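Quick one: structure tokens for this chain, please?
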Amino acid sequence: MAVQLDVGSWGLFTGVSGKQLVLVDDEPCGPISARKITRAIPRRLLLDEQRVTRAFEAHTGPEAIPDAISVTHEGAEWTIKFRPVLSPRTSTLVGLLAAVSPADEVLPEPPLIGSWEWEIERDADGNPTPHRRTFWDRNLFHLYDVAPDVAQQKAGYWEVGIWANELIDQTDQMRVSSSVRDGIQDGISGVRGTLRCLTYNVVTGYGSERRGRRHLRLVGQVPTDQPADKLILQGFSYAAPETFHDMAFEQDAARVDDVLRGVMDLAGEPMAVLDPSTLDVLMTSPAWRRQDFGHVGGLGEIAADDPAQIQEFITAAVNGDTSTSRSAEVRIRRQDGSIQNARITVTAVRVRASHGGYDALLKMDF
């Protein structure tokens, strides 16, 4: 049976004016028009009376949305409860948990929703730079089971390189990086309000000896208001059943990712897949991770030479004859500050049909 928001269930509303549903209790759905899957009584009290819409349009802080409202409908007393989901950096309303129940009944606890906010610095021309942070609220730290002392040290945010390399399961790093890249492109292109959803696996227990794995769903968008010097992405994540996958989990893309991963796992040399337009690292081999590069967010962060020259070389490699590889000598800066000469070989690889072009598969020889 399809997911339905009925009396006694929590629904997670998001999107423009909160008109989309993405979760009912612990069952992911949509994004889908809330009216399509909401039963008569909650539809009347939440949507027809525009209580959800007014909450989104009038929100200025957590005090703007009441915890509970008592109403009379068709001769019966009902309780409407709200739990706002606020972005951790700017306290923007990114989601709203809402439920309707008879006044004399107790609602179950709402699902755990963790919010996040990406902050990407722009250069003088407005282009995104490698300086990126992802801010978390307390619930997101709980979803990842991050050790309390580590959470305190992080002061609410992660450098994106650490998040991508340490907290995302290696089998999903490529897809997550590609999805984030698509969101950034939305921001650069001026696209606002489009919801992007992605299911992926995370490594739990960071900072402790008890490491685990959890299947999460991410729902995010580029907000309308953007500062001149930064690009902001906002959204939330929650646990999802292992059997649930968003459409972004395309079979062909997943198959190509698996082949790349298998090749890289067998390689003795450090290898990585890069976005040629930004030098962002999308996937790394075990040998790459064993090298003393630190948490690499982009090749430009460890290149001792001019990153623009390296980018020009890589761009030429993926825009020229993609049937052949190209090599060049570069200097690499390790985490301890030492410089080492390396030879990089680059070949073009088309990862998914939705990405208009090629990524760069790079091998490094010392």
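The chain has three domains: 10-102, 112-249, 264-366.
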